[in-house]
Each structure stands twice: as structure tokens, then as C-alpha cells.
Amino acid sequence: MVVFESGPSWQTIVTELPFMWLVFCMIEWFATKRKLFIYVFVNLLMTLLFFAVIMYYKYYGVIVTYHALEQVNQVTAVSNSVISLLDPQYLLIFTDVLVLGFVNFRRQAAQMWKNSTAVRSSRTVYMVLFAISLALCLFNVMPHRASMNEIKKAEEMGILNYQAYTLFNNQELKPIEKDEINQETIDRLKGVGAENGVKLYEGSAKGRNVIVIQLESFQNFLVGLTLDREEVTPVLNRLVKENLYFSRFYQQVGQGNTSDAEYVVNTSTYIPPSGAATMKYVDKQLPSLPKLLKNQGYDTATFHTNVVDFWNRGELYKALGFDRYYDKEFFGTDDTVFFGSSDEVLYEKTAAELVRMSSTGKPFYAHVISMTAHHPFTTPEEKDRIQLPERYEGTFVGDYILAQSYADYALGLFIDDLKSSGLWDDSLIVVYGDHLGLPMHSLDEGDIALMEEIYGHAYSYTEMINIPLVISIPGVTKPGKFDNTGGQVDILPTIANLVGVSLSDQIHFGQDILNNRNNLLPERYYLPSGSVLNESALFIPGNGYEDGSILPLAKKFAKKSDSKLSEKEYSTALKLLHMSDSYVIQLPNLEESETESKQEE
């Protein structure tokens, strides 16, 4: 019931048992000593795999595979988040392991087991059972290989078969040739029109500092939210009312979450098919926003209170071309919450450093990563800025709202510092959420009811991945709400338009959302592969397009007939993902660039 909507059924038994028989046949064939111990050990491995599938799905909403092993070194750092997802009933999955382990360590019982298994059955019996099991496994796997939706694929193949399939079927699509990847083709696929006439806000922030603020786990429903007539995020609400606000803006992160948001925003390319971008793509010479602005004379830096090694950020920042990064070594351990100093410390020390950078006379690009409002959102009581209604107290949703009310308060302090130093009026400020904070799969019945109360309807995938985007050019921008669809991949080209920098020589998969009303946003992670957004709907595939689901993005598209995403758009989204993957993996290696630099010296 946790992963598959249909819950336990005869299908579950039919799909999972044959793989187990395969393994048990091999134990009977090859194990001559300590057979009981081997049975217990193998059973433990399978149980741990099922447990990992449950826990991973609870947060990411996808089926874990061996690719997630790259995340193992991150687990200890987010142990609080992992524990918060654990429902005690999930531990019942280990009951059989405990029973077998108990038998194994009781001499008399273990001896009885050994005596009963000492008599070897005919090898012919095992061969027949092995052949039947293998045939059943193949019968479960082969017809479902083409399915796009990994959850459906795992359900129809069986969890164990699916894991084996992903392990041995490591075939990747043949990369698109480099000379076939160009901006004209990308724009044509996305439906981006040729530039005609004057572009909205073109060059309006030319020469200004660029300050991009990434808010941890910040979802769009927080904008304007009041509980018992108390504003949850008054600072962001004021920013929204006074500046350019994109209400239908969406995350495009993957396994790396926050670090993936940093990658997508700074490169305008999509995350890899599996794994985090910081693990897969940081050995490449990535065209990026820092490099683009450095060519315009900008000083570039990124600020994050955690250690730079977390999610391999040190390599990411090198690949992106930041002049400097500021991490835990700079911010210290004062007022530590979760991984590092609080947002108050982050913003206070960052503001002071930005003043120093500005004193050089050069404009700067600063990417500021907030972190205090991190899953599981158990911030200290002294950080609380609002009083929760009683029904929200002690709930996951309530903890999330408290954490974000603090994040909003700290953001307000940063804005005050920027204004008092004069930097606010000299800058382009971009504020957005990095990724969701309330995965649908992590909510219990009480939390689901609270989210329905907040939205006035059932909480769905379209709301789950919806994050805010606010753009401010003090003295230039006027209040305005945009309801066209946008995603994190669009931030780079939008900033380029505002600072008046041409992207004619830089491949990008996003678009300037101030001047382009039609969009197509492929999604990976948190949703099945092949999921895509257009201006009216979120499409989630089934085994393919035909049995996929359409979810409206807004009330004005409430009728299914009003919310459409064609098969052509679906195919185009898959092609865009493949083109992005092909483009990045064929970029020159970073080592080549470093070697060339040394030779020039």
C-alpha cells in the first residue's frame, strides 16, 4: 500500500516469488556449509532492498535503484530526514529476518533445521524449479521493458525483477551528434518564436549586481497564506505585491535536490537521467551564468553554510566557473541548525561580504543558498515567528510552515541589510524556491487533510512541484503577476535578457519567460520519466502516452477538455531531455581546460 496503489495482491506474489525461487535454488545447489546462515543473510538483503524501496519512495516518489548508492555518503548528513519518514509499522518487514535469526542462534533449533536440510533433493528438481522460475521472471520482465513510468514498470515486473533489470540493462540512448544540437533546433522544438521588436525589460538591469536567492524547500502555496488571519510569509508577500511574480513556476531537480537546483539555474540544462548533476556532470566545461557574467566584467561568488564537500559542491562550483565559494569555513558554527549556521548568520555575513565585493567597483553575481528550513523542518522553538493554530501543532505540515515563517523572517533581515547598504537599489534580485518540501508520499492522513484545507481541494502533483519566482529591479519593475508556465531552466535566459547579455553563442534549454508565453518543461524525479508540463497541464505517462494522466495547472483549466498535452509535445519533451544529455556529455572535459590554461601560462 505504500508504493503501489493497488496494494498487496496475487500479482505481487506472482511477480516476486519466482525471483526468490531462483536465488534459493542457487543456494541449494552451491551451499554445502552454513546453509541456514546463508538463507538468513540473503533474506536480510532482500528485506533491506524492500525497506529501501519504501523509504526512498516516501520522499522522492520514485523507485530506488542501484544508482542511489551514490547517495550513501549523504545519508548520515540527513539522518534526521530519514528517521522522520520512518513509520514504525514499516519495521514489521523485518519480522521474518528476526525469526530466522533467532532460530539460527538457538543451537537445538538450528541443529534441527540443519538436519532437515542436510538431505539434498534431486538436482533435477532444482533445475526444473530454476527453469520455471526463470521463465516466469522473463515473462514478467519482457513485456514491460518499454514502459516509461518506473513505478508501473516496477509493479508489473516485480520489485526484485525490476532491480535486476535496471542493473543488467544498462543501455543508454545513443547520443545525438554534436552538430545536430543547436539553439535553433532547441527553440523550434520548444516553440520559442523568433525575436520581433522590443523585448520586455530587455537590458533594464544592465550593469547592475545580480543577487539570486534560493529558498530551501519553499513551495508556492506559502505565498499569501494566512493561518487564523496571521501571515506566514509577510516578507515574500510584500516582494510579490511590489515586483514581478510568477505563480506557475516549477522545480526541475533530481536526486541532488538543492544542488541540482543550483546546477539547473546556472546552466539552463536538464538534470541527468539518474543520479545528481553534481556527481555526473561536474567533470565538464559547463557553459554557465557565472561564466557568462564574468565575460561582462562581473565578480562571481556563491554562498552556502554547509561544507562544500556536501553533494560534491566544490567540483560543481569549479565546473560552473564561480570565482569563489563561501561555505561552513567562512560562516562558522554560530547558531547552528541542521547542517550549518542559521539563515540569519548566512544573510548577515553574506551582506557584509557583498558590500566588500561592491567596493572594488566591479558588479557582482552572488548566488545565495538558504538552508535552515530543511526537511524534516524541526527548527528550534526560538526560531518560530508565528503561532500555529492548535490543529497544526505537532504535525509535519505545521513544522514545515513554522520553518518557512522563520526563513521568510531571515530573508527580511537580508533585504533590510541590502537596502541600508545601498546594494538593493543597485541590483537585480531573483528569489525562487529550490524544490518541494511536502512530498505527497510523506504525508499521513492528518497532513493530507491540512493540505486540503489550505488549498481548498486535494493536494496533487501540480501543487507539489510548484515553487515561487519573484524578480525585482528596484526603480524599474512594476507590480505584475505572470501566469505563464516557467521552470528553473528558464532563470538563466531570463536574467540574460534583463542584464542585456546575448545568448547567441551559448546553448540553453530554457527561455526568457518575460517574453515567451508558451513553454514545455520536461520533468525528472519526484515524477515518472516522461512527465512534462505545458501551459495548461501536467502530463504523467503510464506505460506510454496513451494511458497517461492529465492534471490541470489552474482552475481556469479545471475541465479535462481544457487541459491538453499532445503526444507530439510528449515526444518533444523526451527529445529535449535526450538532447540535453547528449549536449552535456559531449562537452570537453574540465581537465582539458585546466591543461590548456597551464600551457598558456
Automatic annotation (TrEMBL):
<keyword id="KW-0812">Transmembrane</keyword>
<feature type="binding site">
    <location>
        <position position="434"/>
    </location>
    <ligand>
        <name>Mn(2+)</name>
    </ligand>
</feature>
<keyword id="KW-1003">Cell membrane</keyword>
<feature type="active site">
    <location>
        <position position="258"/>
    </location>
</feature>
<feature type="transmembrane region" description="Helical">
    <location>
        <begin position="12"/>
        <end position="31"/>
    </location>
</feature>
<keyword id="KW-1133">Transmembrane helix</keyword>
<feature type="transmembrane region" description="Helical">
    <location>
        <begin position="125"/>
        <end position="142"/>
    </location>
</feature>
<feature type="binding site">
    <location>
        <position position="216"/>
    </location>
    <ligand>
        <name>Mn(2+)</name>
    </ligand>
</feature>
<dbReference type="InterPro" id="IPR050448">
    <property type="entry name" value="OpgB/LTA_synthase_biosynth"/>
</dbReference>
<dbReference type="GO" id="GO:0005886">
    <property type="term" value="C:plasma membrane"/>
</dbReference>
<feature type="binding site">
    <location>
        <position position="258"/>
    </location>
    <ligand>
        <name>Mn(2+)</name>
    </ligand>
</feature>
<keyword id="KW-0464">Manganese</keyword>
<dbReference type="Pfam" id="PF00884">
    <property type="entry name" value="Sulfatase"/>
</dbReference>
<feature type="binding site">
    <location>
        <position position="374"/>
    </location>
    <ligand>
        <name>substrate</name>
    </ligand>
</feature>
<feature type="transmembrane region" description="Helical">
    <location>
        <begin position="88"/>
        <end position="105"/>
    </location>
</feature>
<feature type="binding site">
    <location>
        <position position="435"/>
    </location>
    <ligand>
        <name>Mn(2+)</name>
    </ligand>
</feature>
<dbReference type="InterPro" id="IPR012160">
    <property type="entry name" value="LtaS-like"/>
</dbReference>
<protein>
    <submittedName>
        <fullName>LTA synthase family protein</fullName>
    </submittedName>
</protein>
<comment type="pathway">
    <text>Cell wall biogenesis; lipoteichoic acid biosynthesis.</text>
</comment>
<dbReference type="GO" id="GO:0046872">
    <property type="term" value="F:metal ion binding"/>
</dbReference>
<keyword id="KW-0479">Metal-binding</keyword>
<feature type="domain" description="Sulfatase N-terminal">
    <location>
        <begin position="208"/>
        <end position="501"/>
    </location>
</feature>
<comment type="similarity">
    <text>Belongs to the LTA synthase family.</text>
</comment>
<dbReference type="InterPro" id="IPR000917">
    <property type="entry name" value="Sulfatase_N"/>
</dbReference>
<feature type="transmembrane region" description="Helical">
    <location>
        <begin position="36"/>
        <end position="57"/>
    </location>
</feature>
<keyword id="KW-0472">Membrane</keyword>
<dbReference type="InterPro" id="IPR017850">
    <property type="entry name" value="Alkaline_phosphatase_core_sf"/>
</dbReference>
